[in-house]
Design goal:
14% strand; two-stranded antiparallel sheet; alpha+beta
């Protein structure tokens, strides 16, 4: 399956959110989510490492004034446009991900009780599709 790095990054983050919060979803969906996460995890880690490297290249580490402990890295406002452009370019890069196929919407069970939030479906993007045999539904 061909995905952009952004689709991989967003989709894997959504899968992590789904995995880490108990849901009322059928076992088959839990199984498929686990398999899908496993297939994408290494690519997600590589993309995240590239993002962190970009933040470190353009930003600086902030330290707690008292303890001198790191509070993390931050991109200053004057470099934010460059960061956004380069992150967008990185996210738009296409990758072929063999062995990955989208999950069917029906595998999540009853849509009213699936426990999957709209923002998660949005982040999952092409990783979840309607069943090919399902009649088209109108958007209300």
């Amino acid at each position: 399956m061909e995905l952009t790095a952004g689709q991989i990054w967003d989709g894997t983050a959504a899968l992590m959110e789904i995995i880490n919060r108990p849901r009322q979803i059928p076992q088959i969906a839990k199984y498929r989510i686990s398999k899908l996460f496993g297939a994408l995890e290494d690519r997600y880690q590589a993309i995240e490492l590239s993002r962190v490297d970009l933040v470190k290249e353009l930003g600086h580490e902030t330290l707690d004034e008292t303890s001198k402990q790191s509070l993390g890295w931050q991109v200053p406002a004057e470099k934010m446009d460059e960061y956004k452009k380069r992150w967008t370019d990185l996210r738009n890069a296409k990758q072929d991900v063999p062995g990955v196929s989208p999950m069917y919407l029906s595998s999540f069970g009853d849509p009213e009780h699936s426990g999957i939030e709209a923002h998660e479906f949005r982040s999952l993007g092409p990783l979840v599709v309607e069943d090919p045999e399902a009649p088209p539904k109108s958007v209300a």
